[in-house]
Amino acid sequence: MNINYHYFTVKVLAVKAGFFEDxxxxxxxxxxxxxxxxxxxxxxxxxxxxxxRYLATKVPFGWMFYPVTTGxxxxxxxxxxxSETNQRRILIPFHFITQxxxxxxxxxxxxxxxxxxxxxxxxxxxxxxxxxxxxxxxxANRENTIRIGAxxxxxxxxxxxxxxxxxWNWENHAYLFDAKDNRDDKNITSSYSPNKYYYAPSIGxxxxxxxxxxxxxxxxxNQKVEKDEKFPYEAYYSRNNTLEFLNASRxxxxxxxxxxxxxxxxxxxxxxxxxxxKRGLLTSDTDVKTLQTHWSGIFQDISxxxxxxxxxxxxxxxxxxxxxxxxxxxxxxxxxxxxxSDALPGIVFDAVSDDFFHFNVIADAIRKAVDPSFTTDExxxxxxxxxxxKKTKPGKEIVI
Length: 400
Fold this sequence. Notes:
Elements: H1 3-16, H2 21-36, E1 43-45, E2 56-59, E3 62-65, H3 75-80, H4 84-95, H5 124-138, H6 142-160, E4 174-181, E5 186-187, H7 194-197, E6 217-223, E7 235-240, H8 241-259, H9 267-281, H10 288-298, H11 308-313, E8 316-318, H12 330-335, E9 348-351, H13 355-370, H14 378-392
Parallel strand pairs: 1-9
Antiparallel strand pairs: 1-3, 2-3, 4-5, 4-6, 6-7, 8-9
Helix pairs in contact: 1-2, 1-8, 2-6, 4-13, 5-6, 5-8, 6-8, 6-13, 8-9
């Protein structure tokens, strides 16, 4: 799914579940932020709260913090996903979650494919959702609200990414056979360039482009059943995303209601909401401002405003005491967080709130639940060793 669902639809569902505006905004924002948090390189902080220091290394001028990457947006991000390590730590935990931890080896690789999660199911994600609900019921603070938002991203993706896995393997080999715009029944198969994307690496669903994520589309794919099967494959799979995403919405709404100790929504109330949600889903727009107008016209009582830079700025800011280039402003520094080029070296941040660190700790707990064999980041261990070596060399200092 994309921002049309992860932020806008989830914002509606949180409000309709009875959350106040501030909490509904946190839930929806961090649901989308999972896609947007594509930082992979370590960053400097003047201080790191105690609960997050296990993700950091102490250096003379503060801390080197190792972010828990959850998203991928640039070409380089996608290249990094060719590594099985990043498939296990990024793609599967946050976008293609398995029913069981991936340490439970499947004899049939098709069992690694995502299956839609329901609120009454019994899976790894169900356990994580139940834990988040219990924590929220005990203490309805920002940390526990952020946790719900992050998990709802994963929950929603089990509907859009079903029948695909987060590994690079044969179970994802597929060809987009047909695609239709649900608004006018127009055939839009060619817009997805199926003959081109069929040759993309079979990691997740790139073979069929964004058809599984687009909320206004119905599609059919031709997908492998066996490893050595030749194209055309035996199996065809069809789905109406608009209807499937509505199914996901009811499950999410019921989960959010359960967080507030409310029962499941009744059929009449759900039917009243369905038509409006459907209108929201039936758009091909992905621009945030355009979508704000689109959804505000449907739900005039709900405020929509998403900006990933604001999420950063509410949590961290440029450290005045460590700023090297006086010409660098806070916005530029924050945007450099996801800059692959290291264009702004030597930037040190201060924490405004604990939100940034809570998100990383929550994400780390999720990736460890998905892969219990994961203990610590090798890159962190390697950097710690390098720091130790530099400290032992006379006359050497770490300079930024």
